[in-house]
UniProtKB/TrEMBL annotation:
This is Tryptophan synthase beta chain-like PALP domain-containing protein. Its cofactor is pyridoxal 5'-phosphate. Residues 1-129 form the Tryptophan synthase beta chain-like PALP domain. Keywords: Pyridoxal phosphate. GO terms for molecular function: ATP binding; D-serine ammonia-lyase activity; L-serine ammonia-lyase activity; magnesium ion binding; pyridoxal phosphate binding; serine racemase activity; threonine racemase activity. InterPro entries: TrpB-like_PALP (IPR001926), TrpB-like_PALP_sf (IPR036052). It comes from the Eukaryota. It comes from Pisum sativum.
Length: 164
């Protein structure tokens, strides 16, 4: 929540009309649950490949997330892995699961089915973190190579909203 809170606060000070979306893995979605409940929700346990996102919202970050983040998209670990693969195969960068979550959110069905988000003229995604276990990365990359190539052809080449 610290990076999200800092980015949201800075962005809203510069442009109060900007829309800030956060992203969380389903197995560690305390911020999304907290936004929905209007109070901090602390999960008993977390379960996600995105180990950098297993930390809970704190007393300093919660008020900023509550007041400055417009919505939080929750994604599955499989969507995070797909985003990691895209980063590797298309952007030629290696990112940890936590760093790929923003891209996973933008590519998610939740985002794509919301015209207010999907049809935005400008979308910024923060990709920060390359602390990845190479064994996990290679295993993930080797699973579904054909799936990612098909996805690239179907989505990236035919969707003008995604420019690399």
């Amino acid at each position: 929540g610290g990076m999200l809170a800092g980015v949201a606060l800075a962005a809203k000070v510069i442009n109060p009309a900007i829309r800030i979306l956060g992203a969380e893995p389903k197995g560690a979605d305390d911020a999304a649950q907290s936004k929905a409940a209007g109070r901090i929700i602390t999960l008993r346990e977390t379960n996600t490949i995105a180990d950098g996102l297993r930390a809970f919202l704190g007393n300093f970050t919660w008020p900023i997330v509550r007041d400055f983040v417009d919505d939080i998209i929750v994604v599955e670990d499989t969507e995070i892995i797909k985003a990691m693969k895209l980063c590797f195969h298309i952007l030629k960068i290696v990112v940890e699961p936590s760093a790929a979550i923003g891209l996973a959110a933008v590519l998610s069905e939740t985002f794509q089915k919301n015209p207010a988000w999907k049809d935005s003229k400008h979308i910024g995604i923060i990709v920060s973190g390359g602390n990845v276990d190479m064994t996990v990365l290679w295993d993930s990359l080797n699973k579904g190579m054909y799936e990612i190539r098909g996805f690239e052809e179907r989505y990236l080449k035919h969707n003008s909203a995604v420019q690399w």
